[in-house]
Amino acid sequence: MITVYFNAKAIKIRKSLTLVELLRDNGYVDGCFAVAVNRSFVSRNDVVNALLNEGDCVDVVTPMQGG
Could you report the per-residue pLDDT of 5-30, keeping only the tens digit for each? Predict the structure, then answer.
């Protein structure tokens, strides 16, 4: 098990978990959102193959409406 930070919350995950699996496990399957790992945005194509490492910070950003 390793520790990563998902939306600023420390969580334990298995070592070989991919970014897409982490997103799916947390309800981010479809929709309009962007993902950054260690403050670098990850393209939709790269999310599938991205492996997470100890201490990685994963942030999910969703658009907001307002005025």
Answer: 999 999 999 998 999 999 999 999 88
